[in-house]
Amino acid sequence: MCAIGSVVLKDCHGDYSTTCKPCSKGTFMNEPNGLLTCFQCKICENGLYISQDCTTLEDTVCEVIDGYYCMSYSDDKRDCLHAIKHSKCKPGEQIKTPGTKTSDTVCEPCPPGFYSPEGVNCSKWTDCSVKNEIEDQEGTSIKDVQCKPRNWNMRYGLIAVLLTVTALLLLSLIVLYLKRKRCFILVRSPVAETNPHTSQCVPSTSQPSEIQKTDSPALHPDCNKEHKIYKNT
């Protein structure tokens, strides 16, 4: 019989007792035995971490990582063999019971009038009247109520009226400016008299004093077109 941390190298025979050998690295033996091989050290994985390294006398001790819970245990229920991550509650739900290292998270839906966008805690819908506002959009289990100022529509209406009045004033000023400019041009120009009964072509030899010269081509006499005679001043 070999002690803990060792196994049989050679069985006893005759006058010779049992020969033992120590367990190699990565193996262990945690009880007196007559075995030929040591046990393989356990590897911590699947949501577990090493809390105590393996020695030749005892196996690796694994613990559940925070945020995980154990799904399966060893036969003696002492060691966790496999752990998985805690479930996350969906939007519109909240955590009823937080997960532990032995149990998963328990979720529950938000009650009416509450919302949870991230699935952690349910918050009550905003009361728009507290902010002297009115409800613009109803809340859901994942979204809060949307509020708007009570005079929102009136504000937009006032802006529209102001823009309209401003546009009309600008248009009136432009029209007034154009009219004044036209009157100014007419006042500075000579007054033309046209006699439809006596109008005739002006000979090309007319004296400059009889006809008011102008730089505008439209006012030059033309025998094929109606022309204007200007009175001498």
Automatic annotation (TrEMBL):
- Give an example GO cellular component term for this record: external side of plasma membrane
Q: Which PANTHER family match?
A: TUMOR NECROSIS FACTOR RECEPTOR SUPERFAMILY MEMBER 14
Q: Which residues form the TNFR-Cys domain?
A: 22-62
Q: A biological process (GO) annotation for this entry?
A: positive regulation of cytokine production involved in immune response
Skewed-composition ranges (Polar residues): 195-215
Q: Does the keyword Membrane apply?
A: yes
Extent of the TNFR-Cys repeats:
22-62
What ranges does the record give for the region Disordered, renumbered to this chain?
Answer: 195-223
Presence of keyword Transmembrane helix = yes
Mark the transmembrane ranges.
156-178
Covalent S-S links between cysteines = 23-38, 41-54, 44-62
Alphabetic keyword roster:
Disulfide bond, Membrane, Transmembrane, Transmembrane helix
Task: Name its species.
Answer: Hemibagrus wyckioides
The protein in question is named TNFR-Cys domain-containing protein
